């Protein structure tokens, strides 16, 4: 099935936090892009869902200015969420369940990347006051979503 690709080149993707103290550069290709509706994302970002782009720790170059750092919060037994210590922008996700991967908040990446969002994950946890109406498939259960993460080829 053909993928709807917005950008096919090998140019890196750039992004930053709200204050600009934390900048990053992602080397394509990315591994996925999806809307995550899980409770952890809701609480962490103060939002109905978070759109994540899958990449890898060795493909994301993070540069931090002297007045800030990437602070990691242990958001669950398995996972950590990285945010700018200066402005609080929630930027990154990593987990012992997908070692080596680094997920980046899509909204912080400037411009187009090599893919559009592909689906809604953990849609069973979606808050009732936010309804996603689009053509994308909704993966309902936690087990299904975790199984999908495990299918993602491990980089390189
Ligand atoms: Zn910042
Ligand atoms: Zn989530």
UniProtKB/TrEMBL annotation:
The superkingdom of the source organism is: Bacteria
Which GO molecular function entries does the Swiss-Prot or TrEMBL record give? carbon-sulfur lyase activity; metal ion binding
Domain named CENP-V/GFA: residues: 13-124
Q: Which protein, by its recorded name, is this?
A: CENP-V/GFA domain-containing protein
The record's PROSITE patterns line, in alphabetical order, gives: CENP_V_GFA
Q: Which InterPro entries match?
A: CENP-V/GFA, Mss4-like_sf
Per the record, the similarity remark reads: Belongs to the Gfa family.
Question: Which keywords appear in this protein's UniProt record, sorted alphabetically?
Answer: Lyase, Metal-binding, Zinc
